[in-house]
From TrEMBL:
Residues 201-269 form the tRNA-specific 2-thiouridylase MnmA-like central domain. Catalyzes the 2-thiolation of uridine at the wobble position (U34) of tRNA, leading to the formation of s(2)U34. It catalyses: S-sulfanyl-L-cysteinyl-[protein] + uridine(34) in tRNA + AH2 + ATP = 2-thiouridine(34) in tRNA + L-cysteinyl-[protein] + A + AMP + diphosphate + H(+). It comes from Frateuria aurantia (strain ATCC 33424 / DSM 6220 / KCTC 2777 / LMG 1558 / NBRC 3245 / NCIMB 13370). It comes from the Bacteria. Its main location: cytoplasm. NCBIfam families: PRK00143.1, trmU. Belongs to the MnmA/TRMU family. It is an enzyme of class 2 (transferase). This is tRNA-specific 2-thiouridylase MnmA. Keywords: ATP-binding, Cytoplasm, Disulfide bond, Methyltransferase, Nucleotide-binding, RNA-binding, Transferase, tRNA processing, tRNA-binding.
Length: 379
């Protein structure tokens, strides 16, 4: 049974290839190019990564393929990324990339090349229980990537292998060195390829021009200008440019809301201020690993961001949205990000956060933030 491995030119996919080969599987490598840089000497390292992936395949003696999925990525991932920022939300393109590109477009291409299964270097596990496929957390909890894979369905999981799901990251580096893989010392990639080492605001400004407005404190003071509410996210501390203020506590300022109709950024002082916390969130576009939720109302654990410890909650399934009530208030759950549900080690699925019960006294959404009483049309 042929396995098509997504080779990225990094150490994780390199060791995934090594492990598949040691299991005696017929493995081939396919390098995916998902972005075409239109700036000379841009930060996206596609050429270097392709050469590294080819070198690893050559070292292991496995066939190498390369495909350009940039058009699919632009249509199914990047356009949504820009639209979400334009709407005042903070999207997570990695989740959509996994669903639409790495486990859909890539899977289709792998099958066209004669492969019956695909594999990647993600840290997660797949199991089959009671006739259904499950997505499980990785053994190495510090590297678990099930959060980013929660939108996969039964078809994708039934054809997927995660060779690294059962081992620790430290073992991955050691295996790569022992096998003399050319990527053994290569630094792990972070962030999004199409942004790379560039300033995020500068990159986003190429697609969403600056829309200057005012920064207001929650107690009704205008503190200075901002360059566009879409450039900021809830809980953000750096880049506000407002510093200390006479009569203020001296604690750092944090973004706690967006008043889009008036193009105002709302801030408060202190990393644990009440304005940053919410006990309930709403979410839409739910996807379930099993194809359906466990029930109309159920208790589970959830994460509102990657690497967050599991948080106990109760989920109520509505006709077009979910309502999630946490046992403990959550810091800065952010519209546009995903809330992902777990039953122990089993990932149940997830949904996109749209609103929170902010301290402003009601459900808070970026497009229509209920704001303190001092903000009125006459202000």
């Amino acid at each position: 049974m042929k396995v098509m491995l997504g080779v990225s030119g990094g150490v994780d996919s390199s060791v995934a290839a090594l492990l598949l080969q040691r299991e005696g599987r017929e493995v081939e490598g396919l390098f995916m190019q998902n972005w075409e840089e239109d700036i000379e000497d841009g930060p996206c390292t596609v050429d270097t990564d392709r050469k590294d992936a080819l070198s690893v395949c050559g070292r292991l003696g496995i066939p190498f393929h390369a495909r350009n999925f940039a058009a699919d990525y632009w249509q199914h991932v990047f356009e949504h990324f820009i639209a979400e920022y334009r709407a005042g939300r903070t999207p997570n393109p990695d989740i959509l990339c996994n669903r639409e590109i790495k486990f859909k477009t890539f899977l289709t291409e792998a099958r066209a090349l004669g492969a019956e299964q695909i594999a990647t270097g993600h840290y997660a596990r797949v199991a089959r229980r009671d006739g259904r496929w499950q997505l499980l957390k990785a053994v190495d909890a510090s590297k678990d990537q099930s959060y980013f894979l929660h939108a996969l369905g039964q078809d994708a999981l039934s054809a997927t292998l995660f060779p690294l799901g059962e081992i620790e990251k430290s073992s991955v580096r050691e295996l790569a060195r022992e096998a003399a893989l050319p990527t053994h010392a290569k630094k792990d990639s972070t962030g999004i390829c199409f942004i790379g080492e560039r300033n995020f605001r500068d990159f986003l400004g190429r697609y969403l021009p600056a829309q200057p407005g005012e920064i207001w404190s929650v107690d009704g003071q205008c503190l200075g200008p901002h360059q566009g509410t879409m450039y900021y996210t809830l809980g953000q501390r750096n880049g506000l440019g407002i510093g200390g203020r006479q009569g203020a506590s001296g604690e750092p300022w944090y973004v706690v809301g967006k008043d889009l109709p008036r193009n105002r950024l709302l801030v408060a002082q202190g990393g644990e201020n009440q304005w940053l916390h919410a006990s309930r969130i709403r979410a839409v576009d739910a996807t379930w690993i099993d194809g359906r939720p466990p029930s109309g109302q159920f208790r589970c654990a959830a994460k509102t961001r990657y690497r967050q410890p599991d948080q106990a909650c109760e989920v109520t399934v509505g006709s077009d949205h979910l309502e999630i009530r946490f046992d403990d208030a959550q810091r800065a759950p952010t519209p546009g990000q995903s809330v992902v549900f777990y039953d122990g080690e089993v990932c149940l699925g997830g949904a996109v956060i749209t609103a929170t019960d902010a301290a402003f006294g009601g459900w808070s959404e970026p497009v229509a933030v209920p704001t303190p009483a001092w903000i009125s049309p006459s202000v």
